[in-house]
# Entry
Amino acid sequence: MVDSRYFSAETFTFLRGLTENNNRQWFQQNKKRYEEHVKDPAIRFIIDFGPLLRKISRQFSADPRPVGGSLFRIYRDVRFSKDKSPYKTNTGIQLRHSQGKDVHAPGYYLHLEPRNVFAAVGIWHPDSTTLGKIRDAIIEDPLGWKSAVKGKPFRSRFNLSGDSLRRAPRGYDPDHPLIGDLKRKDFIGITTLTQKAVTSPEFPREFAGICKVGSPLVKFLCNAIGLPF
# Structure
């Protein structure tokens, strides 16, 4: 049921505890708390959010599978990292395009972490081919780009964020009026949320409203890389 409560203060209490005790022994001792207050509520949220997501676009997936679905695994990939902490100390949910194979696809995102709760829309770390298509689309349709990210509804809710190059990308005019956007390596809008908001029974509807406001950016990105919206 959409109006039931999902996340709670216990969600954040567990994540704070994991931050302070990021080791396998502590996690195994508290695994039931993780499942009860983090994993299971997140999966219920994904299931119940599906109908609301379809009202925004049927091209995006709310996939409740615990592995390979919308919920990010809590286990970190430490193979190439100096930080060998085994667990993520946040919960991430990505509702990505149905044709997207991984996290680098256009989509909607929810991030739960003590003192760092936010929603995001757009595309994170696209590959070089996709990045080129987005930059070319900005050049070819500057008015469409400005309409997507500079309109009052979007600007009142989101801030464009992510990594950018220091210099103009190779092959692009450094004096282009939108060079600041052409330097971007990520095309994401972020809006900060409160713990109170995400623990409200009404949060699915609030999150749906956030996603709808951010959809002009997502639609522009989809069009740029040849995906239906």
In short: The chain has one domain: 9-224. The chain has a mean pLDDT of 94. The longest helix spans residues 31-56.
